[in-house]
Design a protein that fits this description.
- The chain is built from twelve helices and eight strands.
- The chain has 313 residues and is of the alpha/beta class.
- Helix 5 crosses helix 8 and helix 5 (130-142) packs across helix 9.
- The relative contact order is 0.12.
Length: 313
């Protein structure tokens, strides 16, 4: 049996609003690790743009982390794949600097820096899927997250002028493998995904399978919960945004205005403002440190707290 071409198998994953964004974009970038998820995301994006005469706007971006002996081989695989399918290929090499974040978070931060360096109006396609969403929600629950954390990853979000779209967020890893098998597309397996010393791997390989065995609908119900909470969170923020406008000016937050609020409301205002600036939401211990440094310190003190940019992948 001959190998199927991408164009021979319809990959209809983009909703109408996402299609409109793609059709109006001049620079569309797919984060391409070479794994099964990003391979399907790239194939779907390539097919859609080819159908609408915009393939020249597409670039597959591979980030080489230089952390494994196979890193060079993965880069070559991605380059070969793109050449075979006539897709523009770009590779960026990064250095992982953990700085207290841990390897997984540091690697994601490094990728995010690459994305932020792209053209301001870029549309960035990521291969996150339903299983990733479930892992994200579980991981945040274990960290004691609030409402925003329970919403998981957003399917379509704008950060610093760039649209990040996750067209596969509604389908499972198993379904992705089904598509790739039908397409007969090659992909690479990252052996580090089996190493349970990493927290996400432990959740993925040990905890979630046991939960799913006991409650078969757990993954889809968790993803549905995240989607519902995302809508509720959006409504909640709409009410608070108006109040926040009175708490800041063009230079930032007004500490004297914030000091008039109680701790919980002040914390919510700070979290929303940081979210608007594309910073990751602080956890409770960070918020208490901020409270102590800025609202319980001497008036002549000059406290400084470091925040990381919001994680897109």
């Amino acid at each position: 049996m001959k190998n199927l071409k991408i164009s021979e198998f319809k990959l209809d994953f983009f909703n109408k609003s996402e299609q409109l964004i793609l059709l109006n974009a001049e620079n569309i970038v797919v984060g391409f690790s070479g794994g099964v998820d990003s391979t399907l995301a790239l194939a779907a994006t390539n097919q859609f743009l080819e159908m609408h005469g915009k393939k020249n706007c597409l670039t597959a971006l591979h980030v080489n982390h230089q952390t494994q002996s196979a890193s060079t081989a993965w880069q070559k695989h991605c380059e070969k794949f793109c050449k075979a399918h006539n897709i523009n290929f770009l590779c960026k090499t990064v250095k992982i600097n953990e700085t207290g974040q841990g390897y997984e978070a540091a690697a994601r931060s490094a990728r995010l820096e690459v994305f932020h360096a792209l053209h301001k109006e870029s549309v960035i396609i990521l291969g996150h899927h339903l299983d990733d969403q479930v892992e994200t929600v579980f991981f945040r629950v274990l960290r004691g997250t609030g409402l925003k954390g329970l919403t998981g990853m957003q399917r379509n979000v704008k950060i610093n002028g760039k649209n990040f779209i996750r067209p596969l967020l509604h389908i499972t890893k198993e379904e992705i493998h089904g598509y790739i098998n039908n397409l007969k597309l090659s992909f690479i397996e990252d052996q580090s995904n089996t190493n349970n010393k990493y927290s996400r791997n432990f959740l993925r390989n040990q905890i979630i399978p046991q939960i799913s065995e006991r409650w078969p609908g757990a993954k889809k119900n968790t993803a549905r919960m995240a989607n519902l909470l995302s809508k509720q969170s959006s409504l909640y923020h709409r009410f608070l945004d108006e109040r926040l406008q009175k708490m800041c000016d063009e230079d930032g937050l007004l500490l004297d205005k914030l000091s008039e609020l109680d701790y919980f409301e002040r914390s919510e205002m700070i979290r929303i403002w940081l979210d608007q600036q594309s910073f990751a939401s602080p956890n409770e211990s960070q918020m208490k440190e901020l409270e102590k440094s800025f609202f319980q310190s001497r008036h002549d003190a000059k406290p400084t707290i470091k925040f990381y940019r919001e994680d897109a992948q």
